Amino acid sequence: MQLSKRETQLIELFIKHGMTLTAQDLAEFANVSTKTIYRTIKKINEASDIGELISSSVGKGFCLNYDNYLNESIRKREGGTVQGPLERRNSVLLKMLFKSPKKILVQDLFDEYYVSNTVITNDLVRMNEFLQEYQLLLIRKGQRISIEGTEKHIRKAVNHLISANRVWEEDFSTQQEKISSYDINFITSLLEYIEKKLQNGIAYPYNSNIFSHIYILIKRIREGEIHADTCSELLDPDERELITQYDQLYQLSWAVITKLNHYLNVVLPESETFYLFQYLLSSRMEKEPIKLSRKSKEALEITNFFATEMSHLMGMRVDYQPNRQDLYEHIDPLLYRLKNEIIVKNDLLGDIKLEYPDIFQQVQKVSQAAEQKYYLNEISEDEIGFLTLYFVKYKEMIHSKKRVLIMCSSGVGTSELLKVKVRKAFPELEIVDVLSARKFSKAPEKYQNIDLILTTVNLTIEMMIPTILVNSVFTKQDEKRVKEMLGEMRDGNRANDE
């Protein structure tokens, strides 16, 4: 099932504004007539292979059948839709890039699509335009055609096309591209080897990115002819210094390439070790991230820029130090990806743009400003989508902050010290006030919607609010008890929601 832009936008209106909408609602949201809405809904349902996606309900309007919509989305991801011109061109390009610089009969490339010579000619023109963006040449001699260029540019073009086509899912199951289970198991074992040596998991989608890189290398070796970039051409002084700084990571890359040599029965060039090294450096780890100390100053400046500008655009403080540190650990490898044009596909991009359009547009605006201010390569929508999720998280953390009162006998010295230590240990808490128990007992109505009280004295008044007795210097044991209480409160809220 292939939907036009208008049909896709109409379905997105249901997801954004509600599962049931009237024709008038849809017309106003889409800025079209109700006749257009009826006609578009009819086309959507006629194109569906699994029943109506949008049904009418007497007295209520139209309703999106969410189960059918999800099933249709899955079918689309699994290649269940008819290929259009773009998908055809991308598929042909992939075949040629994998076999580069070998020459292939034009007819062999297009036979399965049953298209005319005019269509083939038009396709080749469009394909050549795409290849020029990657400094690659489409060479045609008679009935044979080939792609020529450096290995580095061939890999970038292949990676772009594979990312666009979503060859595999998070578990590396295959879609359009035919890949043997034997290869999947081998590449997966390499990923497990890397994680074991790092004593750290590689977060999704970065693990998928490394999987793609190794898969592309295997297929290029088997089907094409690799003309390796020499390290003297490949590495600048900064990159040589990077290898020295992260020698252990470079040695791990070398060990993985050695395993590939045995698997493929070849001797891969040294440049392949550096390519893999780049991918590892640009990945996000599940626990302790790899610190790119060489880039830390630049990454810190750009992190602060994003935090400050987004706080202004969102109209709320999201630039607290814990948030900055969290964001920094993403931006640090992001900068390395931008410099080396490493693509990371964001499978959630469509959902992110649909669910959080305002924050996405704000991050996009700040990204464009950062590109100009810090002379960065273009930050893709995929990367903007990842950054958007961070600011969505910070916004939700603010809205879910627990309101805390701090009490002691006087409400002055000891409680102020306690306030500083609590704020340092739990920056996510909102400290509403610091006061004496006596002051609170005189006017408890002034303190509504309090979630937790931390006190250095035994309270004689009966409290309906959770209360923890703590030391005035707030020891590690106190910190542990507060952490446990917050955990219980979160679990309780989750149970209530369910």
Automatic annotation (TrEMBL):
Annotated keywords: Activator, Repeat, Transcription, Transcription regulation, Transferase
Highest taxon of the lineage: Bacteria
Pfam families found in the cross-reference section: HTH_11 (PF08279), Mga (PF05043), PRD (PF00874), PTS_IIB (PF02302)
Database matches in SUPFAM superfamilies: PTS system IIB component-like (SSF52794), PTS-regulatory domain, PRD (SSF63520)
Domain PTS EIIB type-2 intervals: 402-494
Keyword Cytoplasm: no
Segments forming domain PRD: 178-290, 294-401
rRNA-binding found in the keyword field: no
PANTHER family: CRYPTIC BETA-GLUCOSIDE BGL OPERON ANTITERMINATOR, TRANSCRIPTIONAL REGULATOR MTLR
Protein's recorded name: PRD domain-containing protein
Organism from which the protein derives: Enterococcus xiangfangensis
